[in-house]
Amino acid sequence: MTFKNKVVIVTGAANGIGRGVALAYAEKGAKVVIADVKEEPGSQTVSELKQLGADVLFVKTDVRNEVDIISLMKRVQKTYGRIDIIINNAGKGLFKSLYEVTLEEWDDIIQTNLRSVFLCSREAAKYMRENEEGGSIVNMASTRAIMSEPNSEGYAATKGGIVALTHALAASLSEDHITVNAISPGWIHTGDYTQLTAIDHEQHLSKRVGKPDDIARACLYLTAKENDFITGINLIIDGGMTKKMIYEE
After folding, report:
1. What is the DSSP letter of 114?
2. Catalytic annotation, pick one of 155, 193, 221, 247
3. Cα distance between residue 149 and residue 156, in whole Å
4. Cα–Cα dist 183/193, whole Å
5. Whether residue 127 lies in the annotated active site
6. What share of the chain in percent tops pLDDT 70?
7. Can you tell me the distance from the alpha carbon of 87 to that of 26, in angstroms, rounded to the nearest whole number?
8. Which helix (H) or strand (E) element contains residue 10?
């Protein structure tokens, strides 16, 4: 799998999983666009990637804003002349009693997590379909799309929506040779891994908590041209937790 000279946009790439994904593509020779609303950590990530010799661009982007998204795609096209891959990673959480969630909070998470995926995919696809070999889209969902804890309605709704939107987009964009897949991460630790406990690791069938690299490698796999037979799927990466039968003893 090679990504040399491929142009990859990663939303929400200033830190966390998005940062790990951006780093993985940079190491594979891609031209990486970091689209994030947070300028300071975004600039830090850009500096880190440039130290690796990567061709990287930061574009401040609020994915809730259609104008920002359209401007992002135009900027990338003007800078690099093409868009090959977009990783729709930007998102936020909302874990609050449904009795207390305000309409503004509900609308905000829908716009940030779900509407943004539709808008970014639509706008990127307008340029991808001009490529002879098409393009690839990966949408970051969650295992919370298929299982829940209390007080997670907004987050669950957006992630479930992303899974459904993914296979709909895969169907709609197939004629343009654009693959569309989702990844549903489980527990991916983005902080100090050494602070995790033995119990944290042992509860997983994999016997460890996930890392951003686990998701980054999946993004590489799903967007490699050799794997264009894979489209419309939701790849669960959770150390086996969604398959583990759990009863209180």
Report:
1. I
2. 155
3. 9
4. 22
5. no
6. 100
7. 14
8. strand 7-11
CA end-to-end distance (rounded Å), the chain: 46
Q: How crowded is the C-beta side of 78, counted as CA atoms within 13 Å?
A: 7
Q: Report the alpha-carbon distance of residue 49 to residue 27 in Å, rounded.
A: 8
Determine the residue type at 105: E
pTM of the full predicted structure? 0.95
Q: How many residues does the chain have?
A: 249
- Domain 7-243 superfamily per CATH: NAD(P)-binding Rossmann-like Domain (3.40.50.720)
User: Tell me: the pLDDT tens digits for 27-45?
Assistant: 999 999 999 998 888 888 9
- Report the b/e string of 127-166 with b at 16+ CB within 10 A: bbeeeeebbbbbbbbbbbbeeeeeebbbbbbbbbbbbebb
Residue 173 tokens, joined: 């964009």
CB atoms within 10 A of CB 23: 21
